[in-house]
Write a structure and sequence with these properties.
Elements (H helix, E strand, L loop, with lengths): L14 H23 L2 H6 L1 E8 L9 E3 L1 H12 L4 E14 L2 E13 L8 E15 L2 E16 L8
Parallel strand pairs: 1-6
Antiparallel strand pairs: 1-2, 3-4, 4-5, 5-6
């Protein structure tokens, strides 16, 4: 799913559709919150056994198929030097089709590390595209792509001073 050309998602036709939409958003929110807490088992639990993963817009290498543990380990290493991480997401557009869903949202990720030079923050602004699959009644992320719109702040936040 790319950035929607309309601001309104498809209208749910039943209470089950509304509940599915909310459960998909709950899964995405759980991923953002677990990442901010650096709770790696909770991060892994948000993903399907195999994930089409694309963070290439922020220099994370080409899109590839990854296991949840690989994603969590990469984030654990990359975020370890930071004191705080804060994700903010919104403008969710969710389309559910049976046990599959596509989701889109805007996302902002703040990174913070105290530095002597006062250049303490870095902010990523962009959008996310997800695919999710429901198995055993639980929605799990099976594909994830972040598209960076712009980066603000200190791009060398972790560099020695």
């Amino acid at each position: 799913m790319s950035e929607p050309d309309t601001l309104s998602p498809t209208s749910p036709s039943s209470l089950d559709d509304v509940l599915d939409r909310e459960r998909v958003i709950d899964t995405l929110t759980a991923l953002f919150l677990a990442t901010d807490r650096k709770d790696w088992p909770a991060v892994e639990a948000c993903f399907a056994p195999t994930v089409q993963f694309d963070m290439s817009s922020v220099g994370a290498g080409p899109a590839s198929s990854k296991r949840p543990g690989e994603i969590a380990d990469g984030w654990r290493t990359g975020l370890a030097p930071l004191e705080h991480v804060h994700h903010q997401a919104g403008n969710f557009v969710v389309r559910v089709n049976g046990d599959r869903a596509d989701a889109f949202c805007y996302g902002i990720a703040y990174h913070f590390k105290t530095r002597k030079d006062g250049r303490n923050t870095r902010v990523f602004v962009g959008n996310y595209d997800y695919q999710l699959a429901r198995t055993g009644g639980t929605w799990r992320i099976s594909a994830m792509r972040f598209t960076l719109k712009f980066l603000d702040g200190n791009p060398q936040l972790e560099a020695p001073e």
